[in-house]
Amino acid sequence: MSVLQALFLGIIQGLTEFLPVSSSGHLVLFQKIFGVSGNPVLFDIILHLGTLTSVCIVFRDDIIALLRRPFQRLTWLLALATLPAVAAALAFDEQIKILFEGGLLLALAFLLTCALLIAADKLKSGGKDIADMSFWDALLIGLMQALAIPPGVSRSGSTIAGALFAGMSRGAAARFSFLLSIPAILGGLTKEIMDCVLGGAFMHVGLDRCLFGFLAAALTGYLSIGLTLKLVRECKLRYFAYYVFALAALIALDATVTHKFF
C-alpha cells in the first residue's frame, strides 16, 4: 500500500463513516480497486481511530456530560440501541466475513441503503427529541443498526431512518445516530484488535501510511458529520440514494459481466 493509497482510503473512511453511504462497503470496494492484498486489520484500526476522534470532537459536550453522569437515561438508551448489533455480530460472525468478499451481495446491500434513504427522506419529521425517546424507540434504532452490519448497508442511514420511523425530529435523529456511532466504532475497534492479536498474520502497514490514513479519516470525518446533519434537516438524503444506486449498478455489472474487480 502506497502513501497515496493510504491517504485516499483515509479520506474514504472519514467521509463514508458518517455520510449515509456505508464506510465498510466503500473500503471493500476501493481495496479491491487498489488491489490491496493481505489482511489490513491494523490499518483498519487506525482509520477507525481517526473517525472516532472526529465524532468525539464534534459531540464533546455530550460525551463530557455522559462521563460526568454515566448512569443517566441517555446511557441506557445508547446501551440498549447497541445490543442488537452486538448480538448479530456474535451470532453471524462467519456469515458476515463472507459478505466482505464483495460482488453481487455488495451491490444488493447498496440497493438496500438506497431504499432506506429514500424512505427516510419521504418521512415527515416527528416531534420527539432524545429526551422524549422510549426504550422501544432505542430498540428499534438498534435493530436498524444491526441491519447495517453487512458492508454496503449504511449504519448512519439505517439508524437515522430508524429514528425517523420512531417519530423523532430530524435533528434529534441525526444526533442520536452519531452518538450511537461511538459505541459502534469502539465495538468494531475491539473486534479488530482481537483479530489482530489472536488471528495470526496481518498485513504490515508503515508508520507514515498509518499517520496519513488517521489524519485523513479524522479531518474528513469531522467535515462529513456537519454535512450529514445539514442534509438530514433539509431532507436531501435522496442525493445519497441516487449515488449508492449508481454504485450498486456498476458493482453488479462488474460482478456479472466484466469481472475486473469482483
Please give a handful of descriptors for the protein shown.
262 residues, mainly alpha, 12 helices, 77% helix, globular
What does this structure look like?
By secondary structure, the protein is mostly helical. It has one domain. It contains 12 helices and no strands. Helix 1 runs parallel beside helix 11.
Strand runs, count: 0
- Number of domains as seen in the coordinates: 1
Shape: globular
Helix content: over 70%
Question: H/E series, N to C?
Answer: HHHHHHHHHHHH
Strand and helix layout:
Blueprint: H1 3-18, H2 23-34, H3 41-58, H4 60-68, H5 73-91, H6 93-99, H7 104-122, H8 135-147, H9 155-165, H10 170-198, H11 207-233, H12 238-258
Helix pairs in contact: 1-2, 1-3, 1-11, 3-10, 3-11, 5-8, 5-10, 7-9, 7-12, 8-9, 9-10, 10-11
How would you sum up this structure in a few lines?
By secondary structure, this protein is mainly α. The protein has helices at residues 3-18, 23-34, 41-58, 60-68, 73-91, 93-99, 104-122, 135-147, 155-165, 170-198, 207-233, 238-258. The two termini are 19 Å apart.
